[in-house]
Specification:
This protein is of the alpha/beta class and about 260 residues long. About 45% of the residues lie in helices and about 15% in strands. α2 runs antiparallel to α11. The structure holds coenzyme A.
């Protein structure tokens, strides 16, 4: 159990709070486990009627921990917590599928950085509150990876092909105000209001008829298609993780230098 994601239930809202500020809330396997378990619990437990994603520091999350990616590239998968789930699904996959499957409302409070899955998970949230300082990026290609979490479908749907491509391929960022304008976020508010507004919205959702909420969500998104696409993306992502290009990208990050892809491919 890690305290890098805090989990608490209050007023019928399960709040999952990223809490690894020294690493900008980069997500490890242990953190994905808490997130995935939380989503499972929320779906099963009638005392939970809404899930809120939050962060204890300004950064929402810097996405997947790149040390875990680098270990997978090198063939040593640190995320396989032997004994806990010997033949089980990876926790990141459990989390992504949990997002795809979620029937109860998901709300997010994003005050700062959302990188990679820190942005793509928002495409599964029903109400996203952001601050003007929010900076949403999906820099998969720069890491020699490919989009995940069904973002190859969901991001172009929201922002159009050209903008989505620039975000995936060039790592272009989306700021909070623009995120609201183009429909990635519900509301852009001053940073010190984001958390309170997201909490109030989550509590308001708990008062709505849950049956109607669930069917509304089912009608608004094709969960089966999203899950199927996640599987396809996951296969490419796994291949890309093993590539020489990815090895260069991860080494460059930890050596704090620009990546040089001219000699790999
Ligand atoms: N995985 C592992 N460690 C990470 C991380 C990640 N995704 N993101 C940040 N960190 C670590 C940094 O290595 C640094 O650790 P250190 O203090 O031991 O050197 C610490 O968090 C602070 O990050 P730093 O880069 O100094 O902060 P910054 O404000 O200058 O930049 C980011 C923040 C998020 C823009 C930058 O860290 C970054 O690009 N991270 C990688 C994001 C990423 O590619 N995620 C995967 C997407 S699929």
């Amino acid at each position: 159990m890690t305290d890098h994601v805090l989990s608490s239930v209050e007023n019928e809202v399960l709040t999952l709070t990223f809490n690894r500020p020294d690493k900008k809330n980069a997500i490890t396997d242990a953190m994905y486990k808490v997130l995935a378990d939380g989503l499972d619990q929320a779906e099963r437990d009638p005392a939970i009627r809404c899930v809120l994603f939050n962060s204890s520091s300004e950064a929402f999350t810097a996405g997947n921990d790149l040390s875990d990616f680098a270990a997978q590239n090198a063939g040593g998968d640190t995320s396989r917590d032997a004994g806990e789930r010997p033949a089980g699904e990876r926790n990141v996959t459990r989390f992504l599928k949990g997002l795809a499957r979620a029937e109860k409302p998901l709300v997010a409070a994003v005050r700062g950085l959302g990188v990679g899955v820190g942005t793509t998970m928002l495409l599964h949230c029903d109400l996203v509150f952001v601050a003007p300082e929010a900076k949403l990026t999906t820099p998969f290609v720069g890491l020699a990876l490919v989009p995940e979490a069904a973002s190859s479908l969901l991001l172009p749907q929201r922002v159009g092909h050209a903008r989505a491509y620039a975000m995936f391929a060039l790592g272009e960022a989306l700021g909070g105000e623009e995120a609201e304008r183009i429909g990635v976020a519900y509301k852009c508010l001053a940073s010190d209001q984001v958390e309170a507004a997201a909490k109030a919205a989550a509590v308001a959702l708990t008062k709505r008829p849950i049956g109607a909420l669930k069917v509304t969500k089912r009608l608004m998104r094709d969960a089966a298609k999203i899950a199927e696409l996640m599987d396809i993306e996951g296969r490419y992502f796994g291949e890309r993780l093993q590539s020489a290009e990815a090895a260069e990208a991860f080494a460059a990050f930890f050596q704090k230098r620009p990546a040089d892809f001219s000699k790999v491919g």
